[in-house]
Amino acid sequence: MRVGVGAATPPRVLTIAGSDSGGGAGLQADLRTLFACGVHGMTAVTAVTVQNSLGVSGFTEIPAEVVAAQIEAVATDIGIGATKTGMLASAAIIEAVAGAVDRVDVGPFVVDPVAASMHGHQLLADDALEALRTLLFPRATLVTPNLDEVRLITGIEVRSRADQRKAAEALHAYGSEWVLVKGGHLWDDPECLDVLFDGSEFVEFLGPRYDVENTHGSGDTLASAICSRLVRGESVPEAVRFGKDFVVRSVAASYPLGGGVGPVSPLWRLPDAEG
Ligand SMILES: Nc1ncnc2c1ncn2[C@@H]1O[C@H](COP(=O)(O)OP(=O)(O)O)[C@@H](O)[C@H]1O
Ligand SMILES: Cc1ncc(COP(=O)(O)OP(=O)(O)O)c(N)n1
């Protein structure tokens, strides 16, 4: 019996990201989220991290030209409806990604400027920050920094919701269409506010702050869920609304793993997730 003939091809999203051997964050979190959102996920691997729930003990970069070749291989055959970036590791890889983005159609382009793991291990070289600002942000549909990344990129120390708005204005000046300043690290805030800005208007996404320990991969899950809607033609505010709701439910469904910090989980979205 032949099966699958004539089945519709799902929307396709590319993640340009590092591998997390523990499966909690990075491209593993992206693929898991995209699958749960009904999207075919594709990968351009930038680095292989040696990582578990306790942290990152090292990583090896993929040569920049191989990163660009992965992007072009999937763009020219399969087609890319939307793209997100995660760990990019070096200025050379950022330059290669910017070049590839100019050569092929990557659709709406979401830049999650991953700089360090939640345990503090550096995942982006110091000299790559300028490449992020000048080469990637001007090409981005949306940039989604957490508050540590905001400080590294702009020098702004965010201590309040008002500071989140100031940071969004400073980040928008680097040339992206939209900026989403995530508030998960505003530890004194009883709720989690994410602030979206397009250069003229602010849109606020307020959610609960769950008292959970297992939040590994929350930023990846949010950005991937946003891409799963941008690829279907939704506007950025619509896609962020979906992404915020998706990540809140995934934080609520997080689970312990190993001896350290476990991952947030998109499994809540799948029918019969218990198997
Ligand atoms: N404890 C939490 N409860 C609910 N939502 C959270 C929690 N921590 C983070 N979030 C949400 O998860 C997303 C990622 O947040 P954040 O922690 O700021 O970035 P990152 O994961 O990149 O460090 C945001 O939408 C944020 O509001
Ligand atoms: C390969 C890789 N990519 C990204 C991260 C960052 O994950 P985490 O520290 O959990 O932060 P968010 O996903 O919440 O932004 C990583 N550790 N490894």
Automatic annotation (TrEMBL):
The keyword Transferase applies. The keyword RNA-binding does not apply. Pathway: Cofactor biosynthesis; thiamine diphosphate biosynthesis; 4-amino-2-methyl-5-diphosphomethylpyrimidine from 5-amino-1-(5-phospho-D-ribosyl)imidazole: step 3/3. Coiled coil: none annotated. Residues 20-264 form the Pyridoxamine kinase/Phosphomethylpyrimidine kinase domain. It catalyses: 4-amino-5-hydroxymethyl-2-methylpyrimidine + ATP = 4-amino-2-methyl-5-(phosphooxymethyl)pyrimidine + ADP + H(+); 4-amino-2-methyl-5-(phosphooxymethyl)pyrimidine + ATP = 4-amino-2-methyl-5-(diphosphooxymethyl)pyrimidine + ADP. GO terms for molecular function: hydroxymethylpyrimidine kinase activity; phosphomethylpyrimidine kinase activity. Its EC number is 2.7.1.49, 2.7.4.7. Keywords: Kinase, Thiamine biosynthesis, Transferase. Transmembrane segments: none annotated. This is Hydroxymethylpyrimidine/phosphomethylpyrimidine kinase. It comes from Saccharothrix longispora.
